[in-house]
Amino acid sequence: MEMQANLRQLLATLDQATELSALQDSIVALRDHYGIAHMVYHWVSADGEQYGCGTYSTAWVQHYVTQDYLRIDPVIIGCFQRFHPVDWKALDWSGKAAVAFRAEAVQAGVGNQGYSIPIRGPRGQFALFSVSDTARDDAWADFTQKNHRDLLLCAHQFNQKALELEIRRMPEPVKPLSGREVDVLTYLAMGYSRGQVAQTLSISEHTLRAYVESARHKLGASNTMHAVARAVAEGLIVMGGAARNARGDWPGRSEAAE
């Protein structure tokens, strides 16, 4: 009962926040309430700006941004393809880049356990609420099972407050994408690497980059991840669906390189 009363008080304080900096104080307090290593809220706003709050070290956050780990982070990639909370161990960490990234994250103190809640808001907003720790597998399973409902509440309350405080302009309506731009974004949304997309569509990686940049410009997106998010939100691509090639065929048939 005392734990629940404390949580209600912390969420009430969050609800009264009038500026984004107050979210940082709230997330630190909630992290301490649960007695875990880290808690993070991160979003991509309607106009492509990224911001958030959390308890990771400043050095790790700066390194993550500098190395553009957004492109390879299995948590970002995996959660973008899901609508329900997911334990990090259920994600695909098999690639060489993912293995190296995970080792760096653990070394930076992120923790060997994690649990993320994907959130989707208006006009392409995509956010994540994550908790992580260094607990044993059984202890972490008990923690997530016991607290998953409250964590879901926390996630959506953080997102709702962030949306209330978001005063930037909404983006202009997106311009139509070409069939090939849709193909490229669809495969990227499905988790394909750029090299795999280029091979599947029988185009060079240089041509692939041109399609990505063109789509990003049309969508008013700040980066590839945001372009994919906007395309999904606008109904231009469908997650889990197969992409067509330029002739309207399905993948598997050969196509001249572009």
TrEMBL record:
Keyword Zinc-finger: no
InterPro entries: Sig_transdc_resp-reg_C-effctor, TF_LuxR_autoind-bd_dom, TF_LuxR_autoind-bd_dom_sf, Tscrpt_reg_LuxR_C, WH-like_DNA-bd_sf
SMART domains: HTH_LUXR
Record-linked Gene3D superfamilies: Transcription factor LuxR-like, autoinducer-binding domain, Winged helix-like DNA-binding domain superfamily/Winged helix DNA-binding domain
Domain HTH luxR-type: 170-235
Domain of life of the source: Bacteria
Keyword annotations: DNA-binding, Transcription, Transcription regulation
UniProt cross-references to PANTHER family, sorted A to Z: DNA-BINDING TRANSCRIPTIONAL ACTIVATOR DEVR_DOSR (PTHR44688)
Protein name listed in UniProt: LuxR family transcriptional regulator
Source organism of this protein record: Octadecabacter dasysiphoniae
Lineage of the organism: Bacteria, Pseudomonadati, Pseudomonadota, Alphaproteobacteria, Rhodobacterales
